[in-house]
Amino acid sequence: MTVSRAGKWDARYLGPVPHDTSYYAKCMLGGVLACGITHAGITPLDVTKCNMQVNPGKYKGLISGISLIMKEEGSSAIWKGAGPTFVGYSLQGMFKYGLYEVFKDLYMNLAGEEASEKYKPAIWLAGSASAEFFADIALCPLEMTKVKIQTSPAGTFPIPMGAALAEMSKTAADTRYPFGSLVPLWSRQIPYTMAKFFFFEGIVKLFYTHLLTEPKETYSKGTQLGVTFASGYLAGVICAIVSHPADTLVSLMGKPANKSKTVGQIASETGFVTLATKGLGTRIVMIGTLTGFQWWIYDTFKSSMGLGTTGGK
């Protein structure tokens, strides 16, 4: 059924179930699970990556960086910032995935049946960018706290989440908390999310057009979820490359020496090559794996709720 009760074509009725309030709420919950769990789970990689960006002379690689952090600060140091990471990215995932479904349906209905099919990639881009705009507002205070915890020299900043948030508020004039990193966060996350959803949807469509040519619903849930993971992983590699310069800037803004500098000054002093390459290998591994599992968790949850898997239409 692809028409509303009024008899008009309606994008909310294209899937296996109507996209009503319950559908969007379940997608939001799926986003919480997908992003909160995965981001918190790779905290050791994130701690190392951030320190490689902020102090490249000291932290030269992933394995050596992890070893150095553990040697100097103890084995638990590689889990610094896991609390704000989990909470922040749970909130971000809720809006990223849930609002993507909302905006995608909205823009398809505004475009109409013919135009929405013709310009589907543009709708994926617009929907994901719109969703991420709001998701980053929710994420920003916790992302700033997470970066500060992970990049501060041992003993100079509290590690427990509550104490760290209190310290960020107390030193807001210096840290620019809670939204001082919002613009570089937008510049990192919006291109990342646009690439994440655009390439995911496109790769899924390629799978069901050229490799699995029967109707999508005829394949088992295991096969569909395998397509989801592979598409998510490949999309994640592209995402990492696209968003890495801005990610480096976000990390550098947490460095005490940069507290009085603008984003432009930090970027100019660092240089584009360093912004684009330092820690990129680690981030490709991190984001590829992260994105693959995010989509797999999200679609597994959707399938368990009877909502079907994402994309392929």
UniProtKB/TrEMBL annotation:
Main location: mitochondrion
Gene3D superfamilies (alphabetical): Mitochondrial carrier domain
Cited InterPro entries: MCP_dom_sf, MCP_transmembrane, SLC25A3/Pic2/Mir1-like
One Pfam family recorded for the sequence: Mito_carr
Gene Ontology CC entries for this record: mitochondrial inner membrane
Solcar repeats: 22-106
GO biological-process terms attached to the record: mitochondrial phosphate ion transmembrane transport
Membrane topology: Multi-pass membrane protein
Subcellular location(s) of the protein: Mitochondrion inner membrane
Gene Ontology molecular functions: phosphate transmembrane transporter activity
PANTHER family: SOLUTE CARRIER FAMILY 25 (MITOCHONDRIAL CARRIER PHOSPHATE CARRIER), MEMBER 3, LIKE-RELATED-RELATED, SOLUTE CARRIER FAMILY 25 MEMBER 3
Family, similarity comment: Belongs to the mitochondrial carrier (TC 2.A.29) family.
Protein name: Mitochondrial carrier protein
Organism: Neolentinus lepideus HHB14362 ss-1
